[in-house]
């Protein structure tokens, strides 16, 4: 399945936008009461602002021209009360919508992160971490900015414009129609240019994701960069990504601001029309000065928000471009669904590969028609040349991927019918490159293990001793409290492997897979691990992948994995022969 977010098909993009929009509505469903209150407050605020010019016009025509100062003072007091109320409604709408925006940002980031946790390994193989970080951080913030600031102004401006438009038409229809005519041109222009603005912003967000991916890659690999003195190479790559980001930012900025002068021009045109036409009507005695003052004010009330809408519209387009990128993640489904429980085969072995085929992508099949069985309590070794397919086979045992054809059965059940919790409880996988989290050795050993989470350190040490792991813990000077910094950078690779080993063994799995788990460990510690493996419960099946052949001397059965095939190698010496032949062949 294609998980590359930057290469989604048109169909995938279309369904992701629709599914994303549905998801967005679901996400803000619980905000409905707040949004309704905010909506009415915004309308009230616009109404208060719109009544002002009418009262001023009325004051000029009825009180100022007749020198009725009581009336002037009364209307001034009404205006003061209205403006004070408008100040309050304006404050209220800002706090309400600001809250909605922040809560939405919070929920949205949580939803994306939860989705990322559900997606299969194939998704992470196909996407760069930096681009994903940019989607979680930057793109969600674009949406937050729109919701917390622009949406409120958007509704406020639209309602002010509608109100001002109605006043303009009601006071004098012909003059109103002439004043509003330029806005129709603006509407057509806006609709015509919107897709272009959105695409410019989408390109900019994409290149920001690319820039973030570039930074992330060079920060992750800084030791290699320094060791190989490739600073220039990465500087050049960064410069290219930065230049691309700069160019797309200029493009987006240009697109976002193209409306501002155009809107300004049309607004000034409308003022001019009102002024000329209005003076003509006054000279004919068909219009009063007070109404003219109100009228000019309404024309301003109509075109000023329109001018602001130019900026808000581009914010909206940026938010939509960000939302497209977010919804691409939210609409993805894992290609590793849990199937309904099927038939449980009687007298089944612990694990069986039944005619398994597998490929990472369509270009090349990595495993062809693999059949083998693993018995409970035995030790198996997978050997074979580099790139032969050992890790791939182990990954299918742990269901990091599903076979493209064939079945993997665990205890007689299709492995796809097991929930992730059941599966991870039954299968312990120590990866070639164990990943540790920042925290302590204790945090890392207990990662994903609910059983001992409330144990004190003393109780934990006892559990570790009972599992024969005490000698491994003793290697860490501060025991369970030893600090692990920056994802494990503060400790050696061998020590990381020991922590990963303890983490897996303490879960008491039915199958324990060790993928080159002793590659970075000294011979004495390796012997310790070998003793621990021997003392695991009798029912535990061990699958050991190793290049150092002394580690698999005691295996009950050896499989030779090469060129997409997994074959029984027979004795240790036969495996050696195959390995030497295999190496020659590859
Ligand atoms: N994520 C991936 N995407 C595409 N191809 C992959 C991926 N991972 C591995 N491969 C390819 O699959 C083949 C088998 O790789 P695998 O890692 O299973 O070999 P291995 O026997 O474990 O090698 P090693 O001894 O070096 O660990 C290799 O040709 C490799 O290039």
From TrEMBL:
Domain ABC transporter, first and last residues per copy: 351-586
Native species: Mucilaginibacter celer
SMART domains linked: AAA
Location relative to the cell: Cell membrane
Protein name: ATP-binding cassette domain-containing protein
This protein's GO CC annotations: plasma membrane
Gene Ontology MF terms in the entry: ABC-type oligopeptide transporter activity; ATP binding; ATP hydrolysis activity
Membrane topology reported for the UniProt record: Multi-pass membrane protein
Keywords: ATP-binding, Cell membrane, Membrane, Nucleotide-binding, Transmembrane, Transmembrane helix, Transport
Ranges for domain ABC transmembrane type-1: 36-318
Membrane-spanning residues: 35-60, 72-91, 151-171, 178-197, 262-282
